Amino acid sequence: MNGYIEHANITLVNPKKTIEFLLAALPDWRVRGQGKMEEWYGKEVEWFHVGDDRSYIALQSGGDKQVEDWNTHWTGVKHIGIVVDDLNQTVERLKQAGYELDHWGGDHPHRRSAYYVDTHNMQFEFVEYFSEQNDERNDYSL
User: Fold this and answer.
1) Which residues form the VOC domain (predicted)?
2) Degrees to nearest 5, angle at CA 129 with 128 and 134
3) In Å, how far are 41, 101, 112, 124, 125 from 78, measured between CA atoms?
4) CATH class entry, domain 7-137
5) How does pLDDT run along the chain (142 residues), one tens digit per residue?
6) Pick from 4, 93, 130, 29: nearest CA to 138
7) What number of other Cβ atoms are within 10 A of residue 127's Cβ?
8) 19 dihedral zone (left: phi>0; alpha: psi -120 to 50; beta)
9) What is the pTM of this model?
């Protein structure tokens, strides 16, 4: 079996804001599970699993502040990349939902990406591939 990422877990101040952002970008995703931990190191925490049947992002409350800007030198997750079928449609859905594009990814003949920052300052990259060939999709020489 090949390994794959099943989920990433992110602690936020208000995970419902990030859920709104993700569902605006990815209408095929859903909140596939949720619950509460009454006592999580001194706090009550709500958690949500947002994704599809195969993978998800675990979002939980309990955060104390914003994520630092992605372009600074702190240690931690800089962004999460999510593959989409049609980047133009994703960008349009996010625009209609009131989210602003942070920046476009670099030029590449076999992929295109757009970066967004949510209300917690968490950055997400949405990627569309134009090839099914792994050597083209994963070409870093260009």
Assistant:
1) 4-129
2) 150
3) 25, 16, 18, 9, 10
4) alpha beta
5) 788 889 999 999 999 999 999 999 999 999 999 999 998 899 999 999 999 999 999 999 999 888 888 888 888 888 999 999 999 999 999 999 999 999 999 999 999 999 999 999 999 999 999 999 999 999 998 7
6) 130
7) 17
8) alpha
9) 0.91
